[in-house]
Design a protein that fits this description.
Length: 195
């Protein structure tokens, strides 16, 4: 028994290292696991930056639509409009139910939307719009499109019965590969005529 044990110990002592095949197999397995882990880590890192950017873009777009449709503390929005004074592709000027004149204006150079109340100074909406986030036309469509009572497009302010709002909010380049985001927003408002 002792002799057998000594013999097996001697065999073990002679085979201290790994064979070339065992070594290359182990390196290949570690390489495959590392490559999968690296791509997973890149995906998780990209999404940890992309998802907050996308949520910021989404929140900003919804807030912008809400301000234009519902209004905010200083003035009511398009839902409360009684008459349209200006009907252009980049701006709309209207009278709301409180008797205030409200204008929404899209600046194509700065890619921001401004509000003016009673012909006062223009202010960016939403007020917290950060640098690097842009509001632009969706597929070269105008921000504001106007329709008459028969649902034909019109530019006559007195004939406007419905206003379609369409825009894109983009952070940076808007590409997922650049860890940026862009979303399209659209809504429509009926202009009520009170006689």
């Amino acid at each position: 028994m002792k002799q057998r044990l000594r013999k097996s110990i001697k065999i073990f002592e002679r085979r201290v290292g790994f064979t070339f095949i065992e070594l290359t197999t182990a390196i290949a397995i570690i390489g495959i696991i590392s490559a999968a882990g690296a791509s997973l880590m890149l995906f998780l890192a990209q999404n940890s930056i992309f998802i907050p950017n996308k949520l910021n873009v989404e929140m900003l777009g919804h807030d912008l639509l809400e301000i234009m449709i519902e209004g905010y503390q200083q003035a009511k929005g398009l839902r409360f409009s009684t008459a349209v004074a200006t009907a252009a592709n980049n701006n709309i000027k209207f009278q709301n139910a409180d008797g205030k004149t409200v204008e929404f204006f899209w600046d194509s150079g700065n890619k921001k939307i401004y509000i003016s109340i009673n012909n006062g100074a223009r202010a960016v909406i939403p007020y917290y719009l950060p640098d690097g986030i842009y509001i632009e036309q969706k597929d070269s469509n105008p921000i504001f499109t106007y329709y008459d009572v028969n649902e034909f497009a019109t530019s006559n302010p007195t004939a406007v019965r419905r206003v379609k709002i369409e825009f894109r909010v983009r952070s940076g380049s808007g590409n997922y590969q650049d860890w940026q985001s862009q979303l399209d927003f659209a809504s429509s408002i009926t202009v009520r005529r009170f006689q």
